From TrEMBL:
The keyword Ribonucleoprotein does not apply. It is an enzyme of class 2 (transferase). One of its GO terms (biological process) is shikimate metabolic process. Pathway: Metabolic intermediate biosynthesis; chorismate biosynthesis; chorismate from D-erythrose 4-phosphate and phosphoenolpyruvate: step 5/7. Its cofactor is Mg(2+). SUPFAM superfamilies: P-loop containing nucleoside triphosphate hydrolases. HAMAP family: Shikimate_kinase. This is shikimate kinase. Catalyzes the specific phosphorylation of the 3-hydroxyl group of shikimic acid using ATP as a cosubstrate.
Length: 304
């Protein structure tokens, strides 16, 4: 019982309470230093678990599923209007809720693959909370940024904190988790993530390098460089990381390949895929996984 309470307190930053449910999102204060490292205001977002009136309205209005989406739109290579994307996503997410049955969704993928961006969208439509495991590690080290943790204590220390964080998250439920890009390298982390459903966002390295070099590498210590051609240097480092850990991502329960989505939509590359379209594919992969495995985890969160 005491352990349960302690855990609950530690993760009150992630688990919704009625207080959070009444507000669209809550942000934790962070040190100025942490903000500077990230180059933008950072926060841990808590999404209300209850559906809003808008969501209820959309859920009622949505009539078709992604599978049933009119073929000409998918085949034309042009995106449907974003309202349609939102409706499809909402509809699909409502369909999959009974299958995922409260289990956490872990997004894995290389740095910059969109785990945070897609994770926030997905958590909102599912009525789940959103958590970024890097942010939780930062909080566990008194608000020290990931870059500073690497600098001060080394990567091994960071990896231990990351595993501890995933272990704690494995005891929670109704959460979409954006994992650290390197979480896949430790087998023990897969054991923790196995309590939920893991989805690999598979994004071509060139697209990752474009995204990351556009925002800078300050907050990503394994990619950081002080000078030179940002795109090429980032691509080289990403390629080296990929050689070391590319295979590990395939341990995920499901894979969402941006190249495959682009091909399905008739796009030449992945640049124009909106986060909502990718979130729809993640939802489809979740339902596919749940329906085909019939694995309903009853031993973890239900006893929490
Ligand atoms: N579908 C997309 N199209 C274009 N840019 C995107 C897309 N998804 C995410 N991005 C951009 O790519 C960058 C990285 O995205 P995000 O932070 O979501 O990735 P991440 O996987 O959480 O990264 P990290 O593991 O390094 O924290 C951000 O600048 C984001 O705006
Ligand atoms: O790919 C990685 O190894 C990392 C990714 C980031 O999310 C952080 O977890 C950290 O910068 C290490």
């Amino acid at each position: 019982m005491e352990a349960k309470i302690a855990l609950k307190m530690q993760f009150s930053a992630c688990i919704d309470t009625d207080k959070f449910a009444r507000r669209p999102s809550v942000s934790l204060p962070f040190s100025q230093k942490l903000r500077e490292q990230h180059g933008h205001p950072i926060s841990c977002h808590f999404q209300p678990r209850r559906t809003s009136n808008w969501q209820k309205h959309v859920a009622l209005e949505a009539s078709g599923s992604y599978r049933n989406f009119p073929a000409p739109i998918l085949e034309s290579g042009s995106f449907p209007p974003s309202l349609d994307e939102a409706l499809i996503l909402k509809n699909k997410s409502q369909e999959i809720l009974p299958y995922i049955d409260g289990r956490c969704v872990y997004l894995v993928g290389m740095m910059g693959s969109g785990k945070t961006t897609i994770g926030k969208i997905l958590s909102e439509v599912l009525g789940y909370s959103f958590c970024d495991s890097d942010t939780l590690v930062e909080l566990a080290v008194k608000g020290t940024s990931v870059a500073e943790i690497f600098n001060l204590y080394g990567e091994g220390f960071f990896r231990n904190k990351e595993s501890e964080t995933l272990q704690k998250l494995s005891l929670t439920h109704h959460m979409v988790v954006s994992t650290g890009g390197g979480a896949v390298i430790r087998p023990i982390n897969w054991k923790y993530m196995a309590k939920g459903i893991s989805v690999w966002l598979d994004v071509p390295l060139e697209a990752l390098a474009r995204r990351i070099s556009a925002v800078g590498t300050n907050s990503r210590p394994l990619l950081h460089h002080d000078s030179g051609d940002a795109y090429n240097r980032t691509l080289t480092r990403l390629s080296n990381l990929w050689k070391e850990r590319g295979d590990a991502y395939a341990n995920a329960n499901a894979r969402v390949s941006l190249e495959e989505i682009a091909a399905k939509l008739g796009h030449r590359d992945v640049t124009n895929l909106t986060p909502t379209v990718i979130a729809i594919e993640v939802s489809l992969s979740l339902s596919f996984h749940s329906i085909h495995t019939h694995t309903h985890n009853t031993s973890s969160w239900k006893h929490f």
